[in-house]
């Protein structure tokens, strides 16, 4: 039994560094491709995670991300900033990485 493929989805978030990230765009198929093309055009890092997109696509445009996803999105935003060479004030990218326990709880 063949099931049709799920539509390609994309979402866009805006983060000002003060408030929780907000959903600013979402779409399937052609609109998803347009969102991704616009991100590429403006050198916005793209993070692919289909399950996270499905969760966030349920939100309404302008909604802030739910508190349960703060840590996940914070790690993605931090990674995107590092890709662009941006770091928080006082952070030394040359210092040794801090080890932390990543054991699931």
UniProtKB/TrEMBL annotation:
<dbReference type="GO" id="GO:0005886">
    <property type="term" value="C:plasma membrane"/>
</dbReference>
<keyword id="KW-1006">Bacterial flagellum protein export</keyword>
<keyword id="KW-0813">Transport</keyword>
<dbReference type="GO" id="GO:0009306">
    <property type="term" value="P:protein secretion"/>
</dbReference>
<dbReference type="InterPro" id="IPR006135">
    <property type="entry name" value="T3SS_substrate_exporter"/>
</dbReference>
<dbReference type="InterPro" id="IPR029025">
    <property type="entry name" value="T3SS_substrate_exporter_C"/>
</dbReference>
<keyword id="KW-0282">Flagellum</keyword>
<keyword id="KW-0653">Protein transport</keyword>
<keyword id="KW-0969">Cilium</keyword>
<dbReference type="Pfam" id="PF01312">
    <property type="entry name" value="Bac_export_2"/>
</dbReference>
<comment type="function">
    <text>Required for formation of the rod structure in the basal body of the flagellar apparatus. Together with FliI and FliH, may constitute the export apparatus of flagellin.</text>
</comment>
<comment type="similarity">
    <text>Belongs to the type III secretion exporter family.</text>
</comment>
<protein>
    <recommendedName>
        <fullName>Flagellar biosynthetic protein FlhB</fullName>
    </recommendedName>
</protein>
<keyword id="KW-0966">Cell projection</keyword>
